[in-house]
Amino acid sequence: MQATKSHVSKGDTVVVIAGKEKNKSGKILQILSKKNSVIVEGLNMVKRHVKARGNEPGGIKEKEASIHISNVMLFCSKCAKPVRTTIKALENGDKQRLCVKCGSSLEK
Ligand SMILES: [Zn+2]
Predict the structure, then answer these.
(1) Is 17 in contact with 82 (CB distance < 8 Å)?
(2) Which of 21, 33, 80, 81 is the most buried (most CB within 10 A)?
(3) CA 74 / ligand 1 centre spacing (Å)
């Protein structure tokens, strides 16, 4: 696993703050660090035409398209809304993301 500089990581629940999926939330399935984008489960679905291959039939399949990382925010359950995060280094060297507003930990 390579370190990522982004404010979100795989498995986080995020809220989309811009675009057609605005205000929807979902779990991050994948981080595309080169594109600064994320794949969020069930969001930003696009239809793709798939050619038949082997014993897989062709047709139209729906798949998540990436969302730019600046368009998603972590959700704070205490504030009940998407929030900006701050990173706090712990004594053991771990880093923890905190909600800027209420200061509660956003780690699972
Ligand atoms: Zn909060």
Answers:
(1) yes
(2) 21
(3) 10
